[in-house]
Amino acid sequence: MTALLFVSFLFSLLIGLPVAVALGGASLLYVALTGDLPLLVVVHRMVNGIDSFPLLAVPFFIMAGNLMNSAGITDRIFTFALAAVGWARGGLGHVNVFASIIFAGMSGTAVADAGGLGTIEIKAMRDNGYPDDFAIGITAASSVIGPIIPPSLPLVIYGVMANASVGQLFAAGILPGLLIALVLFAWVAVEARLRNFPRDAAFRLGRLARAAWRGTLPLLTPVILIGGMKSGLFTPTEAAIAATVYALFLGLIAYRTLGWNRLVRVSMETIETTAIVLLIVAGASIFGWLITTTRVSEEIAEAVLAITSDRRVVLLLVNALLLVVGCFLETIAAITILVPVLLPLVTKVGVDPVHFGIIMTLNLVIGLLTPPVGMVIYILARISNRSFEHVTRAIAPFLVPLFASLLIVTYWPGLVLYLPGVFYR
Predict the structure, then answer these.
(1) Phi and psi for 381 in degrees, rounded to 5?
(2) What pLDDT is recorded for position 181?
(3) Which of 369, 402, 382, 410 is nearest to 122 (CA)?
């Protein structure tokens, strides 16, 4: 009967049903056929799954990211990044990464980064003579920083599913996010030398000062959010509300770039995305509960540990599994399904749940850059007006620095757990 639970879920996905329907339907079929539980338990567990205070952050972080894109704030971020690092060889490649670091502190999703900044970055790189493959590849790779540096929507979902502190997860993502950026900076520098890319903007202090002044308010967003959480002014959940209020202030009052029609459109997009995310979480709640009550997760852990109890090998196997799953499942869906299965395994070999949250998120976000379901590929194909296959080939070399970053994050827990230890001692 436990096999039926997984087989019916996979079959539902193969015939094209939405993930939420596949999760809920497989769980309902299992409960109906076993007859051990009343069918109403499915509804109760789904409702309980989304009856969570941290999940209030979901609609607000989604709306904040949408508002930042719609209010023209990405233009100011790009201008500042160009003035700050555009002087280096392969300058626009460095600008691409630097802008993603800043935007990561506002949006929390790779899709928002690729869709918002990507439009500006790819056009600018084309206008300056950069090859399409490089422009598309570095735009995709830098978007991975978005869900790692706080605020992060996937980390909120992981915190809820793993019963882990969202605040500690946010703190844990800062250094790994900066590490990814440093590795990408190095990759761009090497590519620039090999391919003789130009320096795109001479460094001028006055220009940097003007760009910083023009972008002061957007650049303050990460400072306000992280500072507010660190000082105790608001919780990570309340930080999502603060981000949304601040984005509304920038769009409606400070810059007046957000009209009524655009605000309505952003609100409707937020409602639609939130509904999808919460339906997945609700479906995964009953699915995960059944996995736990049937001891599937414990049996998987015991089976793996019977082969090896070496933490390094177990983490390598888990990474391989997550990278494969990331090719076929969207990040939020994969987190909600796999946390109940994998968390008991990794904790038995001594992996901290906060550390594993960063490992899982980074693996699955890299999956957004891989076919057949990589959302970032589809977005960049539309933005660049290139085929899905062309974008996939352009991204492939940039998976190398991302895999290198993943290995460092996986096997250097001190990097991940340092700031949670400082902030939450």
Answers:
(1) -65, -40
(2) 95
(3) 382
Query: What average pLDDT is seen over the chain?
Result: 85
CA 184, CA 399: separation in Å to the nearest integer? 10
- Long-range pairs for 7-12 at CB < 8 Å and ≥24 separation? 9/287
Whether omega before 151 lies within 30 degrees of 0, making that bond cis, reads yes
Q: Do 140 and 380 form a contact (C-beta atoms < 8 A)? A: yes
Domain count, the chain: 1
Please name the helix (run of DSSP H) or strand (run of DSSP E) that holds residue 244, with its range, or none.
helix 236-248
Q: What is the pLDDT of residues 346-367, one digit of tens each?
A: 999 999 999 999 999 999 999 8
Contact 409, 362 (CB under 8 A): yes
CB 244 within 8 A of CB 63: yes
Among 68-82, 230-244, 257-271, top mean pLDDT goes to: 257-271
373 belongs to a structural domain:
yes
Contacts of 52 (CB under 8 A, 6+ apart): 160
Residue 148 falls within a domain, yes or no?
yes
Q: What is the pLDDT of residue 140?
A: 92
Residue 231 CA: distances (Å) to CA of 20, 50, 236, 247, 384: 37, 28, 11, 21, 42
3-class SS of residue 89: strand
What's the domain range around 71? 54-276+295-423
Residue 80 lies in a domain: yes
Name the CA radius of gyration of the chain, rounded: 22
Both tokens of 401, joined, read 């620095």
Q: Do 39 and 32 touch, CB atoms closer than 8 A?
A: yes
Q: CA distances (Å), 314 to each of 126, 220, 259, 311, 365, in order?
A: 43, 41, 52, 5, 20
Looking up tokens 């974008």, which residue turns up? 391
Q: Which of 359, 376, 369 is nearest to 399 (CA)?
A: 369
Residue 95 vs residues 98, 135, 199, 376: alpha-carbon distances, Å: 5, 11, 11, 19
Token look-up 């202030």 returns: 249
Whether 108 is in a domain gets the answer yes
List, for residues 266-322, the tens digit of each pLDDT value: 889 888 888 888 888 888 778 877 877 777 767 777 778 888 889 999 999 999 989
Quote the pLDDT of residue 351: 94
DSSP state of 367: G
- What does the block give as tokens for 244? 């949304």
DSSP secondary structure string for all residues of 363-407: HHHHGGGSTTT-HHHHHHHHHHT--HHHHHHHHGGGHHHHHHHHH
